[in-house]
Design goal:
five-stranded parallel sheet; 691 residues
Length: 691
């Protein structure tokens, strides 16, 4: 309405002769303040109370300056017409005060269809005893102005008041939102909808950059449209981005078919998509032209002109050549990036093969360690879909068991959600349960689960129990029996090779398996002999498969007794082969350690040479004749500081000379093997299921 008055006022003034005096419009004086505050305005950080106070002050000032003109009949007539129109506008505004506009009506209808099916139509109430329930869909509402944000929140709070958990369904993210509250809103909106009730996020352009909101949201509405394509693109980028679980993302715009100005919006959206498709992103030159065309707003008489300007907002030939050259560079960088990604994938696959770490064995080792603690193993969390493999697991609360080690409390904290600022630790532990764990990337941006890896604190502590077993006993006292589908009984003696450097520093450690076909001692014509390479690899594969949790028949007691009686003799016969192989592996490892020490010593020598060069250059620069002449002009503090620097540089140069002589040799000595230890740590029998 205010803009309608402004247009009529301008049209009336256009009929007046150019030399005539034009009265100042009170509406134009107020428009800058009352049009609202966007995120680029300095007042975006003000609270709503401060904004209202500023608007009231501007209204009073505009009122004082817009007293009825007393000079000229035309001026008095125009002012009277304006007063009459304002009175008419006031009546219309009071009659429609509090009623939702067409955008709110359309959005509420969309809510009923996609988010809250039992929500009654506007103007009606839900059936008695019926509380409308929400599904798990989420939506973001972007507004350009603070007034729109406030109006939208008030309307939706009233409309949704009777729904389930209505007071927690709406969150607001705008300029004055404190950083801590922003982080809290982001975590809540990205949380599992089953665990957090928020469904609608009302945001100003303060949220258009730097936020990942795609975890559980793929719908976005533009209630106010910024006449700037890049800002629209940035808004849509909150959900239209990597790791979006939905195959489709919906960005909604409101268009009034009876309003000519919205033809410009349709052209603007179409132009944005064309530019993105052709150039990959909005070229800055094109964007500046679009922004310039829309700078003064949209008038009915300019709609066709603006449509043409937007459609024709292309690059000049000279600029186009520059853009194409830049695009070629971008394509070259993209090709190089693709090659780097392929190279990293190859390295990753090679690392996985070298480490030989699989999710199943990793998870089985964690479960085994938990059982050694007397706790329950990892339990799969069902998602209710039998055709979907179980990838999420429930971790037992080790700190809440009877007689539990109290030190597990802080370790288990790594499986909880991050603690809020100013939240008491005991309150946090009470309100933040242990999260489920996964062993592979979930492909989504969420903090509902914890990804366990080899360096995780929980994993380090649990797997450390197995390593500690190698130091508590001096002889072989661990043996196990597993079943395989292979028809041949096999035995595997597992040894542990450790190489130690100066001061007993552990330089190298690995497990050494020696596999052989098992023959009952009474039937042996010669001692057990190790397999060849191919048969040994097959035996190791059978062993790894047998270590996984699986249902099987129990091994008969007579078989277990025969193997227990045979174990001491089997160890004695295989032990020489274990030591021989350990010597070979120790020699290879020693050679690699020496090479690594030489490489690190050379790197350190080069670092010291470069450091000496920089210190010399800095010292010489401060000893230049010009600085010596200016030295007398320095005050006493500056002179003392310069002299102190000179002494420090001289001292550092002397220290570098000593380090060049001693440090590389010290690094080499760190990789010198001083002691070696080969010991058996386990004996495994692989018994055929059919046996």
């Amino acid at each position: 309405h205010r803009r309608t008055v402004q247009r009529q006022w301008d049209a009336a003034l256009a009929d007046v002769d150019g030399d005539a005096a034009r009265p100042k419009s009170s509406m134009s004086q107020l428009s800058l303040l009352t049009d609202g505050v966007d995120s680029d305005d300095d007042r975006a950080t003000l609270s709503e109370e401060e904004l209202h106070a500023e608007e009231d002050a501007a209204m009073e000032a505009a009122t004082r300056e817009s007293d009825a003109p007393t000079e000229g009949d035309l001026a008095r007539r125009l002012f009277a017409d304006e007063q009459l129109l304002l009175n008419e506008m006031t009546e219309i505004a009071e009659a429609s005060c509090g009623l939702p506009d067409a955008r709110v009506v359309a959005f509420v209808n969309w809510l009923r269809q996609h988010m809250c099916p039992d929500l009654p139509p506007l103007g009606k109430t839900a059936a008695k005893g019926l509380v409308p329930r929400w599904n798990d869909t989420r939506v973001i509402l972007f507004t350009e102005y603070d007034d729109t944000k406030r109006y939208l929140r008030e309307q939706l709070e009233g409309i949704l008041a009777g729904t389930d958990c209505a007071e927690n369904r709406i969150a607001v993210f705008h300029g004055p939102t404190p950083p801590a509250e922003r982080e809290q809103i982001k975590r809540a909106f990205n949380a599992d909808p089953k665990k957090h009730p928020v469904r609608i996020l009302i945001a100003t352009d303060a949220a258009r950059e730097g936020l990942n909101l795609q975890s559980h949201c793929w719908n976005l509405f533009h209630f106010d449209v910024p006449w700037n394509p890049s800002r629209m693109e940035q808004r849509n980028g909150r959900i239209d981005r990597k790791l979006q679980p939905s195959p489709e993302v919906y960005c909604h715009y409101f268009v009034y078919h009876q309003r000519p100005e919205d033809r410009v919006l349709q052209v603007l959206v179409r132009k944005t998509e064309n530019i993105k498709r052709e150039l990959g992103s909005l070229a800055q030159v094109v964007e500046s032209r679009l922004t310039k065309s829309l700078l003064r707003g949209i008038r009915h008489s300019d709609v066709e002109k603006l449509e043409r300007e937007i459609e024709e907002a292309n690059l000049d030939p000279a600029v186009s050549e520059t853009v194409q050259a830049e695009l070629e560079e971008v394509r070259d960088r993209r090709e190089q990036l693709v090659k780097q990604v392929d190279h990293l994938r190859t390295r990753l696959d090679a690392s996985k093969k070298w480490i030989n770490l699989s999710e199943d064995h990793f998870r089985a080792a964690i479960s085994c360690s938990l059982e050694l603690l007397g706790a329950e193993p990892l339990r799969p969390v069902s998602d209710g879909k039998s055709d979907v493999p179980l990838t999420q697991f429930r971790f037992p609360a080790l700190d809440q068991r009877a007689g539990a080690d109290s030190t597990w409390m802080t370790t288990m904290d790594t499986l909880r959600a991050p603690r809020e600022r100013d939240q008491k630790p005991w309150e946090w532990r009470r309100e933040s349960p242990i999260r489920d764990v996964v062993f592979e990337d979930t492909g989504t941006m969420t903090d509902e689960v914890v990804h366990l890896h080899l360096e995780h604190r929980i994993v380090q502590r649990l797997l450390g129990r197995f390593r500690a077993q190698g130091f508590i006993l001096h002889d072989l006292s661990r043996a196990c029996l597993a079943q395989t589908k292979d028809a041949i009984p096999r035995v595997v003696l597992i040894g542990r090779l450790c190489l130690y450097g100066p001061q007993a520093a552990r330089l190298h450690e690995e497990l050494i398996p020696v596999a052989a076909r098992w023959v009952e001692s009474s039937q042996r014509k010669q001692p057990l002999g190790p397999y060849g390479r191919e048969a040994e690899l097959k035996t190791i594969d059978l062993l790894e498969a047998a270590l996984l949790p699986q249902a099987g028949h129990p091994i008969a007691d007579p078989v277990q007794q025969r193997l227990q009686l045979s174990a001491p003799q089997d160890v004695q016969e295989l032990l020489p082969h274990l030591e021989e192989r350990g010597q070979e592996l120790a020699a290879e490892a020693t050679k690699k350690l020496l090479a690594r020490g030489e490489a690190e010593a050379e790197d350190m020598r080069q670092i010291l040479i470069d450091q000496r060069k920089r210190v010399v250059e800095t010292a010489e620069k401060h000893r230049s004749p010009q600085l010596t002449i200016a030295f007398e002009a320095f005050d006493e503090d500056e002179k003392r500081q310069l002299e102190s620097n000179q002494r420090h540089w001289d001292k550092r140069l002397l220290a570098i000379e000593h380090e060049l002589r001693d440090e590389p040799e010290r690094i080499r000595n760190q990789y010198q093997v001083q002691a070696m230890r080969i010991q058996p740590v386990g004996l495994v029998y692989l018994w055929p299921v059919t046996g």
